[in-house]
Structure formats: structure tokens, C-alpha cells
Amino acid sequence: MTDGGVLHIKGRVLVGPEDVRDELWAVDGRVTFARPAAEPAATLTGWALPGLVDAHCHVGLDAHGAVDRATSEKQALTDRDAGTLLIRDAGSAADTRWIDDRADLPKIIRAGRHIARTRRYIRNYAHEIEPGDLAAYVTAEARRGDGWVKLVGDWIDRGVGDLAACWPGDALTEAIAAAHAEGARVTAHCFATESLPDLLAAGIDCIEHATGLTEELIPAFVERGVAIVPTLVNIATFPGLADGGETKFPQWSAHMRRLHENRYATVGAAHDAGIPIYVGTDAGGSLAHGLVGEEALELTKAGLTPTEALAAATWSAREWLGRPGLTEGAPADLVIYDADPRADLRVLGAPRHIVLNGAVV
Fold it and tell me: What is the spatial distance between Cα 82 and Cα 98, in angstroms, rounded to a whole number?
């Protein structure tokens, strides 16, 4: 990092979709719109946004489970250099608390470790338990995390040969109530439709992927204010997964292909109904980090306008997660581009400057 003292950001500062200022300053790592007495050490020009948000990311994981600090650092740096300065880590088997002490790395909101049904998720990722233990594990992860808990709502059932819900409704109701009692929200990995009704009835706060969302279920999402994080860059991998499972699980493979084919229509219907949608890449595991700009572009293919997709990665996402944007006194975490990203989201792929805690990185 280059600590530039007082930084002057000049040009077009997108405080909100329509709230555009001419300049701001970073003083002692914080945003101010009042001209400071001290002369700036540097002036950066361009189109400034709050640091991007990846609302579904896994720092500390690869395809085989937890990774070491050096690998976790590389992942976080890749996200940072793509402009992602706030991450909701949607489940990690690694302890990444040390990142909080690094002013040069993105800020992370953790959901603890995934909680899955026994032998019903990726090996070495999750606590693998049975329904009777769900509430206790949810309570523990709520206390370990940063206000979120991550469940695996469905996965392939090898006996059935297709996706199937992992938890009975009564266990979900008890577990989600336990999380809420700890002040935590709950999200769940869900590909299939069948897992959604019980999660909705139990009070779930968010659904990851949401490929099984149907028109019949949309009103319940709207009524309860349940958000979705579609991770479309991850859903793009479904055909390859289906090809790999064709011989042993043809029913599952056909199901995954249908979910992929309908992905844009599913997200578009959610958007039309007013369901909150946020940008998340599902980076980690087998998917590369640094794809936040690509995910924003994917949302436009589902019918979001460029400004709506941008909000899903910036202003709206930060509000949803309870973190400030470019407001007076907020941490000076921002990204500067050569052109207006509201006019062309491809701009997100080429940040001119990245400022984290008031320092240029």
C-alpha cells in the first residue's frame, strides 16, 4: 500500500445511483466531503465508486477444503485488485480472522463454516451433521461468524439420483430461530425447488444460487423480504458438471441442465417481482476469484439495467450488509474508473485506482 496522507478524489464521485459529487477527500483513512486544512499528498481523478461487494465468496477454500494463509492471501488480493473491497464469505473451513488485521486486504463478513447433512456436500468443506444437531451447530456458527450462518439446503441424494432437500422443516424452524436469537441472519445453498418451501416457512433470510425459484414461490420471497444471490458465473459451470455425472446420475444431470437453461429467466422473474438481488461470484472452491465485474454483467443478461446491476455490487449490497458506502466518516474504500460504469459495466474490469482505508493499493 502507498499511504498518501490526505487524498483528493476528483471527477465524478458516485455516492449513489443519482447522487454524484464533484470531489471527496480521504483523511486519516476516512471519507470527508469537507475540504481539509492540510494540502492533499495526491489527487486521483476519474469515476469513483464505493468498493465493490462480492456477496458470495469463499476466501480460504480450494476444491479440496481449507487452504493455508499464503493461498488465502493470494485469493483476497485477487479480489481486491478486481475492486472487491467488501466480501461476504459464504462459508469457509479456514480461519481467516488474521485478515482483519491487514489494512491492505478486503473487509470480510463471515458466515462461519458451512453446515451440511452427512455425506451431502463437498468433502472437507462443512460440518456434516444430522437434523437433531442442526440448531446447536447453527448457534455455534452464529457466534463464530459476523452476523451470518450458511446452511446447505439441498444436494444430490445418491439414493434418489437427483437433488433433494437436506433438512426437515421442524429442524430448520428451530435452527433459524436459534440463529435469529443470536442476532445472525441465515442463508442457504439451494439449487432445487424442493428445498425452498420449508426454508421460507422457517424464516430464511437469503437464498444462494436460487436456480429452483418458481413463479409459485416468488410471492413468498417478496412477502418475507428474502434476498437472492444468483452467482450466475457459477451456474455457467452446470453443463460441465452434468456431463461429468451423466453415467451415474442421469436424472441429476438432466435437472442441472434445465436449471442452467432457465437461469436468466429465473433471475429475471425475481427481479421483475422486486426480490432483492445481489452480486456474488461463488469464488473459491473450483471457481476463480476476481470475477465480480463479470457477475454484474451476467445480471444484465437476466434483465437488470446496468445501474441496477451496479447497485447490486455497490450501494444496495453495502446497505443490505450494514456497511457504509461513500458517506461522511466512512472508511475510504473506493475504486476509480476511467469512465462511467453506469453507461458501460465492462469498465468494472479495469480499475484505474483502488483506495483501501484511505491508502492507494
Answer: 21
